[in-house]
Design goal:
Layout lengths: L1 H34 L3 E11 L2 E10 L4 E9 L7 E9 L4 E9 L10 E6 L5 E7 L10 E6 L15 E4 L2 E9 L5 H5 L4 E4 L9 H12 L3 E4 L5 H5 L9 E6 L7 H8 L22 E5 L5 E3 L5 E6 L2 E6 L13 H13 L2 H6 L3 H19 L4 H24 L6 H22 L6 E9 L4 E10 L5 E4 L4 E6 L21 E6 L2 E6 L6 E10 L5 E9 L6 E8 L4 E8 L2 E8 L4 E3 H6 L3 E6 L5 H12 L5 H20 L7 E8 L10 E12 L5
Parallel strand pairs: 4-22, 8-10, 8-11, 11-12, 12-17, 18-32
Antiparallel strand pairs: 1-2, 2-5, 3-4, 3-6, 6-7, 9-10, 13-14, 15-16, 16-17, 18-19, 19-24, 20-23, 21-24, 22-23, 25-26, 26-29, 27-28, 27-31, 28-30, 31-32
Helix pairs in contact: 8-13, 9-10, 12-13
Length: 684
């Protein structure tokens, strides 16, 4: 017996010694890993693309081969972090660079805080690097490309080195001389492009198409004309820029610019350092003609025609920037020449966030959330009916026959609690037990890009995600301040995050890392799209005395619309069931009952939201129609904020039910397409 005890004791002692040694070696390895960093890396802004930031991630590996995930966590202004995961293979002593495209809603550009993490294939953090000033390290100036045979004469357009502010970032302008040889190299990195005293046709069709695409993707183009009008405007396709040169004034003559400045007080900041007005009669001024049914309009801020083109904008000035008279302007006034083009572009309007939509976004989404994820308590009605009609009386009769009727007042509450437990059990079963998504894809009809707003749900407690379609290029959290603060979310700790976007060989996916039993989240994604046709108005008139409108609206999108809204000034009308290609006579549609809503729309959309929800609130089976209205209101809000302030056209917005799915996975998705455009109207 003693020998057996001794043997067992020795075995146990050996086990503890080995375990202690193992623990020591594990602890040593952890300490060594802490001291010797295997990875180094950085995240810097490469460029801005429409309403997105393109971030360049650089990582180096000084240790063994690595196969896993590089994770960049961005902190936004609400301290609700979003992680961007990219799967990579990084060999020993290797270095890699790749880009991550991030919507501005997902980040805090002011402080630029974040973290760069290296995750194993089992998603365990191997190493973390804290990042600061990600948006300020690489950019020291705002590049402005110049195509001109008189580059030296345009150098004053750098405003003497004064800072210019674009999207919360202020840097001096840096002029870059462009040519046919280096145009393609620099085009992606510049914010503004100036073409002046330059024969554009000499570039050839391929290079001109590059410039057009750059503008359509969000670039800001300024064209000087004057005596060089014909050559600087030559080569552009009519669909891109349809402007004709009617005449060119000689120096010393009255012209369109001088008359507007004198008679209407236009261009009031065109004066020199001494406060004297710039004399437009000393310049050669081009008289330009344009299609009044296009998005082109006469500016009251600059002697120019301005036009929104795709996500970007073009301003065609009546003069050449090389005029000696213009070089007298001080730097502050020169900076304002750039402003109108920037502010009139869809890319800037989308980037700035939607004030109205921030105001009502949470309300719309909470409505959708309630309609799509609420617990089903219909069982409660059934069980109460069964209890009152059947169970209660039977229980009383049984107890009375057993001469225990006094127990009824004990049995009834107990049985009632059992019924409540049953309701809870069945009700929980009715909650979302699969991934669901509600998506609204909003697109200007003639644009080549679209924005999609998601509300996603899942009842599980584990991290989950949905795969996006291949057209999406960027994704992240939804509206700041209202859109997703409502749903809880992460915290300020950079080691943690709530939203995440995954990039791998199959494309983008997005999801949540829930922190409660039931979690929902609001997402935003953007990507490429094809033109959807357009909306047209014929002889539309608004009668101020009666408040209503008359005329014809044409659905030229090629889609059957569940609802179409026509909004001019403060008045809006909504029509139902508008077929592809159909012409709606507004007056007749009102008589036929197809106008479901007409009213003055206030500055904020929430009053209209309550009107529309109440409109369907008393009808049977209204959930889908109320969701229709929520989708339409999102489109109206986006169209309102993107509309140039000087554009007096009507806004037409239409929604399509069961639109193209935004999620590529098998997923219970309710999807809408929401298209909008601005159309010419005639006032009476």
């Amino acid at each position: 017996m003693k020998h057996k005890i001794s043997a067992r004791f020795v075995l146990l002692l050996c086990f503890f010694l080995l375990a202690a040694g193992g623990w020591k070696s594990v602890a040593f390895a952890a300490d060594a890993g802490t001291e010797e960093k295997q990875f180094t890396g950085s995240v810097e802004m490469l460029k801005q693309d429409n309403s997105n930031y393109v971030m360049q991630v650089t990582v180096e590996n000084s240790g063994e081969d690595f196969s896993g995930t590089v994770q960049v966590i961005f902190q936004n202004s609400n301290l609700e972090n979003c992680a961007y995961n990219t799967e990579i293979v990084l060999p020993a002593q290797g270095k890699k660079q790749f880009t991550v495209t991030v919507p501005e809603r997902a980040v805090d550009t002011l402080h630029g805080f974040g973290a760069l993490n290296f995750l194993s294939e089992k998603e365990k953090t191997i190493q973390s690097i804290t990042l600061k000033n990600m948006f300020g390290n690489t950019m020291s100036s705002i590049p402005v490309g110049v195509l001109s045979d008189n580059y030296a004469g345009l150098s004053y357009l750098d405003a003497g080195g004064m800072d210019y502010t674009i999207k919360d970032m202020s840097y001096p302008l840096k002029m870059i001389e462009l040519s046919e040889e280096n145009l393609e190299t620099y085009l992606d990195g510049i914010y503004f492009l100036i073409i002046d005293q330059f024969n554009l046709s000499s570039l050839g069709e391929e290079k001109i198409l590059l410039i057009q695409k750059w503008v359509e993707d969000g670039g800001w183009l300024l064209i000087g004309t004057g005596a060089y009008a014909e050559q600087t405007l030559s080569g552009f396709e009519e669909d891109f820029l349809d402007i004709d040169v009617l005449s060119i004034s000689e120096a010393g003559e009255e012209n369109a610019a001088s008359e507007n400045a004198r008679n209407y007080g236009y261009y009031d900041y065109y004066y020199d350092n001494a406060g004297n007005d710039i004399d437009f009669t000393r310049m050669a001024i081009a008289k330009l003609d344009y299609d009044i049914y296009s998005d082109t309009y006469d500016s009251s801020q600059n002697p120019a025609l301005c036009s929104t083109v795709g996500e970007g904008a073009v301003s065609v000035f009546f003069f050449s920037f090389g005029e000696e008279e213009l070089q007298k302007m001080d730097g502050y006034k020169i900076l304002q020449i750039y402003d109108e083009t920037m502010y009139r572009s869809d890319s800037y309007a989308n980037f700035g966030g939607y004030s109205d939509m921030e105001y009502i976004g949470q309300r719309l989404l909470s409505h959708i959330d309630s309609n799509n994820t609420k617990v089903n308590f219909k069982w409660l009605e059934v069980l109460i009916g069964v209890y009152v009609v059947l169970v209660g009386p039977i229980l009383y009769l049984i107890l009375r026959k057993c001469k225990k009727s006094e127990w009824y007042w004990i049995g009834a509450p107990v049985l009632g609690l059992a019924f409540i437990a049953g309701v809870f059990f069945f009700g929980q079963g009715a909650r979302v037990n699969e991934t669901r998504a509600y998506s609204v894809t909003v697109q200007r009809t003639d644009s080549n890009r679209a924005d999609t707003y998601f509300l996603a749900y899942h009842s599980g407690t584990k991290k989950w995600d949905v795969r996006l379609n291949s057209s999406f290029e960027a994704a992240g959290p939804g509206w700041n301040d209202y859109g997703y603060r409502y749903y809880g979310g992460g915290g300020s700790n950079l080691d943690d995050y709530h939203y995440f976007v995954q990039s791998d060989s199959e494309g983008l996916s997005m999801g949540l890392k829930p922190q409660e039993n039931f979690e929902s989240g609001f997402f935003y994604a953007t990507g490429k799209a094809e033109s959807k046709g357009n909306f047209f108005c014929k002889n539309i008139q608004e009668f101020w005395s009666g408040g209503d409108m008359k005329g014809i609206v044409v659905n030229g999108t090629g889609y059957d619309l569940a609802y179409m809204a026509v909004w001019y000034n403060s008045y809006v009308m909504i029509f139902s069931d508008v077929k592809a290609g159909e012409e709606i006579d507004i007056g007749q549609a009102v008589l036929n009952g197809r106008c479901i809503y007409q009213n003055d729309m206030p500055d904020y959309l929430d009053n209209m939201m309550y009107d529309l929800f109440d409109l369907y609130g008393s009808a049977a089976k209204t959930t889908y129609k109320q969701d229709d209205m929520a989708a339409l209101l999102i489109g109206l809000g986006v169209a309102k904020e993107a509309k140039p302030s000087d554009n007096h056209n009507a806004v037409v917005v239409g929604i399509v039910k069961d639109y193209e799915k935004a999620v590529a996975d098998r997923c219970n998705e309710t999807s809408y397409g929401c298209f909008y455009s601005y159309t010419e109207m005639e006032e009476n």
